[in-house]
Amino acid sequence: MAEPCVVIIGAGFGGAEVARALRSAPARVILIDQHNYQLFQPLLYQVATAALSPADIAEPVRRLVRGQRNVEVLLGEVAEILADERILVLADGSRIAYDILVIAAGSTAAYFGHDDWAPFAPSLKSISDARSVRSRLLRAFEEAESTDQAAERNRLMTFVVVGGGPSGVELAGSIAELARYSLAKDFHKIDPKSAIVLLVEKGSRILSPFPKELSDYAARKLKALGVTVQVNCAVKRISETWVETDEETIPVAFAIWTAGVKASPVAKTLGAPTDKSGRVETNRDLSVPGFEGVYALGDSALVHDDKGNSLPGLAQVAKQQGKYLGRALARKLQSKAPPGPFVFHNRGNVAVIGRHAAVIDFGWLRLTGIVAWLLWALIHIYLLAGLQHRLLVAVQWLWRYLTYDRGARIIVEPKAEGDSSC
User: Fold this and answer.
1) How many whole angstroms separate alpha carbon 87 and alpha carbon 271?
2) Helix H segments across 238-280?
3) 381 and 40 in contact (C-beta within 8 Å)?
4) What is the pLDDT along the chain (422 residues), one digit of tens a residue?
């Protein structure tokens, strides 16, 4: 009798953990991803602001499951799930049959009905996004240096970050530090320290998932860095050279979108009910109601805790779900009793604002300042896949701390996007 086939869509934090937990399971495991690497998205903004290179935060998928003879890695994109037939259809038309399906496909940027804004306000969901933002950011300063028109120079040195969540706060702070410290002595005609960075948030405060005292601290620290925080401010239109809010029209070099995410489109093709973000609602054991042998986790899943609250789309949630589900499936395949429902253990919600400034909310303990900043650094180094990445990032952060220098200041032209060396 042939071994059952477990197919995992997505080799991110959750999907890779499922695959690794099935190391000794009596099953054939197929791990599918459209990229050959696992990306550490929490540090993607540092690639966008020239602090790190893409290779520093990406680990080859095959290395993650090296030595697991029952795991097959497949480079491809899932276009459709035919649940009635238990078949996946890939973008190239090929088909894969499954006995157990795990949907861990991650998320994409959500522009809330304004997808036409995407070319003018790129998101940060992929390496190509980060490299594009980095190139546009650095080129803006180069073009400001070469123009003699004051109005054009001011526009080229104005950047708007849309969305005051952790990603927006971290990105805005990092752009401000890049201009104020790393680029400050590199130009002759312009003063990079005069660059304008605006963080625009539709809600009443930034970092809304955090307690108000931490949000207020973050706002103060951003202001000290030179970031202008605008709350209760909705974006109405975005073009190549300006951003219109409900208060004003701002000439900009470009905007960056961090205001929302939605589940990968593949989750919807299952045919199960989804929320407005496209997440598939699951049971507490991560199984999808009405679809035998189908599970969802991470950004693809709407999972509630024992109090009825939906779990956030965080890396730590996906990793814990992946470990839980992998072990649960291994027990199921070995005809052992299933574990209880998934329980999320909060390891702390964290956001960094800049040098010596971060916030951490453990629920029972709240930290700010240099202690939170050091913990943030340790947590992120620990979560990186691969010892070499941990060492490289640690050394680069130490060098940047001592010198304020950022070594990944490479402008990549669109025609060279296939070059992954920078």
Assistant:
1) 13
2) none
3) no
4) 689 999 999 999 999 999 999 999 999 999 999 999 999 999 999 999 999 889 889 999 999 999 899 999 999 999 999 999 999 999 999 999 999 999 999 999 999 999 999 999 999 999 999 999 999 999 999 999 999 999 999 999 999 999 999 999 999 999 999 999 999 889 999 999 999 999 999 999 999 989 999 999 999 999 999 999 999 999 999 999 999 999 899 999 999 999 989 999 999 999 999 999 999 999 999 999 999 999 999 999 999 988 888 998 888 999 999 999 999 999 999 989 888 899 998 888 899 999 889 999 988 899 999 999 998 888 888 777 777 778 888 888 887 777 777 777 888 875 444 454 55
Q: Catalytic: which of 17, 59, 170, 201?
A: 170
pTM (predicted TM-score): 0.91
Ordered domains of the chain (ranges, CATH): 5-109+261-333 (3.50.50.60), 115-259 (3.50.50.100)
170: annotated active-site residue = yes
Q: What are the structure tokens assigned to 374, written together? A: 């050091």
Burial status of residue 277 (CB atoms within 10 A of its CB: 0-12, 13-18, 19 or more):
middle
